[in-house]
Amino acid sequence: MLTTKDRILSVLVDHIKTGTNLSNLSLSQIAAEAEIGKSTVYEYFSSKDEMILATYTYLLDTYHQILLSDLTHSDFKNAFIEQISRILTVMKDAKNIMDAIMNNNKTPFPIFSNHLDACMKDIQSKMDGRFKYIMETGVMEGILPNREPHPFAKNVIQAIISGLLFQFVNQEIKCTEDQLMTLIYQQTIHHLKQH
User: Fold this and answer.
1) 27 located within any domain
2) What predicted TM-score, i.e. pTM, was given to this entire model?
3) Of the candidates 45, 154, 176, 186, which lies 20 to 30 Å from 138 by C-alpha distance?
């Protein structure tokens, strides 16, 4: 069950995704859609700008939860694919938001505050740790070589993953999600075994 503050933010997220010009969205309308009184909005936010910034923080927190909740698989292949699937879920959602913002030049884009920047760096750091754990599992299972990786191996693997996911989200690759996950897995293994 969403808290009152989360209901308010969820309303704004829905409007961002549909390309609503947030400048034209009244606090009364936000309150009505969140099924609360207008005065309740002021209990949580002193201005619409504060509310918009909080909405982007809320989105990052949602993405953090999707990306970094506990894995349901403990073996290398399934944990790797599960994590890539989570990244794809976030990328599809983020693309919808960016498309809505770019198609409506009056929709405010967040000023990246120190808080938002710190949130993104925290997610990246934890994702690095998650992939390190997954790769170590691959070494322990004998799937990946037990040697010092090439100095740029991490960069190449990130390029393989992000490049293929980006192309899939933009419909530049014609395959199913399962085929995409298999392709990313195979290309990652191939690169790590070769280098």
Assistant:
1) no
2) 0.84
3) 176
Residues 17-74 pLDDT 10s: 887 877 788 888 999 999 999 899 989 988 888 888 888 888 889 999 999 999 999 9
**Which residue, chain included where needed, has tokens 């037990």?**
146
**Alpha helix stretches (DSSP H) within 69-111:** 76-103
| CA angle at 144 for the pair 140 and 150, rounded to the nearest 5° | 120
CA distances from 83 to 87, 89, 128, 167 (A): 6, 10, 12, 18
The reply to whether 36 falls in a domain is no
3-class secondary structure, 149: coil
Smallest CA-to-CA distance from 82 within 4, 172, 178 is with 178
Residue 14 lies in a domain: no
Whether 129 is in a domain gets the answer yes
Tell me how crowded residue 120 is: count the other CB atoms within 10 A of its CB.
14
What lies within 8 Å, CB to CB, of 103 at 6+ separation is 19
Q: Per the structure block, which two tokens stand in for 70? A: 């506990």
Structural domain for 74, as ranges: 60-194
Cα 44 from Cα 184, distance rounded (Å): 43
Tokens 């069950």 belong to which residue?
Answer: 1
